[in-house]
Amino acid sequence: MKKSLFLILVGTVITALFTACEVAPVDDSISHQKRVRDAWVRVNYGSDYVALTKSGIYVLEETPGTGAPVKDSLYCFVHYSKRDLDGTYTSTTDPEVAKVHLGTYSDTLYWAPEIWRIANYTQNDGARELLSMMKVGGTIKAIVPPELSTITYPESHKTYVKTSNKEFKSNTIYEISLEKSVKDIEQYEFDLLKNYADKYWGGIDSTKKGYYFKKLKENPVPGDSIFDGTTIDVYYSGHIIDGITDNFLFDTNIADTARMYRRYNGSAYNALSVTYKKNPEESITANSLVDGFARAISEFKYGEEGVVFFSSALGYKEEGSGSIPAYCPLVFYIRTANKK
Q1: How many other CB atoms are there within 10 angstroms of residue 267's CB atom?
Q2: Which residue of 102, 103, 177, 253 has the smallest Cβ count within 10 Å?
Q3: In this structure, are residues 36 and 171 in contact, taking their beta carbons and an 8 Å threshold?
Q4: How much is the pLDDT for 163?
Q5: Which top CATH class is 186-336?
Q6: Domain 29-183, second-level architecture
Q7: Three-state secondary structure readout of the chain
Q8: In angstroms, how far apart are the furthest CA atoms of the chain?
Q9: For residue 298, which of 311, 308, 283 has the smallest C-alpha distance?
Q10: Residue 8: per-residue pLDDT
Q11: Do the domains at 29-183 and 186-336 have one common CATH topology?
Q12: What is the pTM of this model?
């Protein structure tokens, strides 16, 4: 009888506890982060900040640009860093920040600005809102709340997969520098390639739009032509065309070239095996290579050397790859092995 009474009492207490848990107020993450954000600004800036937007972004510091304002259609070349309110950096395009704060600096990486747009919805809402406030040559430092870390697609984007994955779950400080903007990215690349051809290769003409090829060493022996379907050995070095140095080495399978550019990593440097096709389009299909490189292979005989440079449409397009930024023209120096 006493045991039953005890169990009843315990059950009553547990029920009361669960009931209390059900009605206890649950902290709203958005509200909590707003309080954290407001308190941080009061402590660090007081009222000496630039603006507080309707969406909740604190613009802390700003240097107005003197160039064109950002519009939806522009491709914007942006240097940026992101960090938490406690000062912990999470990502950057600044090599010094990477070296000092992230420990991710490497001189084998190409430290270039990223290309951001408003219209293509590849950046989160907060980043796109900041970009819309800027002009070329300007800088901005701002706190973006976590609820702006998603992409809000317009109704017209019905084919997009709409998710609520967030880049970050807390307030994030953005520091952005807008280097330049380009309206027509394809024409921008064509101009880079034309200038490169004029500066280094005597103004040679493209043989296909955005594609240039020049033989540097020819094999005059008629019998040294390569038959379709033959597996050949190829040596190469790949560089980035940026209109500045035009010489950043991002890849090579030649040990001496790697040493010359201080990129040697002690690995084996072996020939690249490629299936030769005389038809450029078949060469592209037959080889798991970027289109411009594969197309160039069809131009060679055994034991020849050449240079090919091309737009990102024949390279890594808008995605980029590793050290290669989006919308980046490339140049390859290529040598085919002698006939065995």
Answers
A1: 9
A2: 103
A3: yes
A4: 54
A5: alpha beta
A6: Roll (3.10)
A7: CHHHHHHHHHHHHHHHHHHHHHHCCCCCHHHHHHHHHHHHHHHHCCCCCCEECCCCCEEEEEECCCCCECCCCCEEEEEEEEEECCCCEEEECCHHHHHHHHCCCCCCCCCCCEEECCCCCCCCHHHHHHHHCCECCCEEEEEECHHHCCCCCCCCCCCCCCCCCCCCCCCEEEEEEEEEEECCHHHHHHHHHHHHHHHHCCCCCCCECCEEEEEEECCCCHHHCCCCCCEEEEEEEEEECCCCCCCEEEEECCHHHHHHCCCCCCCCCCCEEEECCCCHHHHHHHCCCCHHHHHHHCCCCCCCEEEEEECHHHCCCCCCECCECCCCCEEEEEEECCCC
A8: 109
A9: 283
A10: 40
A11: yes
A12: 0.85
- Would you state the structure tokens that stand for residue 85, as one six-digit string? 């309110």
Residue that the structure tokens 């000062």 belong to: 87
pLDDT for residue 166: 66
Q: Rounded to whole angstroms, how far apart are CA atoms 276 and 302?
A: 11
- Averages of pLDDT over each 10 residues, the chain, 340 residues: 39 45 56 95 97 97 96 94 96 96 92 91 91 97 95 72 65 97 96 98 96 96 91 97 94 96 91 96 94 96 97 95 93 95
> Which bin fits 137, alpha (ψ -120 to 50), beta or left (φ > 0)?
left
Nearest to 253 by CA among 244, 263, 243, 245: 263
Give the pLDDT confidence score for residue 101 in this predicted structure: 96
What residues does each domain of the chain span? Answer: 29-183, 186-336
Structure-token match 């019998």, residue found:
223
Total Cβ atoms within 10 A of residue 126: 25
Question: How far is CA 324 from each of CA 133, 274, 314, 321, 338, rounded to the nearest angstrom?
Answer: 28, 22, 13, 5, 31
Residue 6: predicted pLDDT: 37
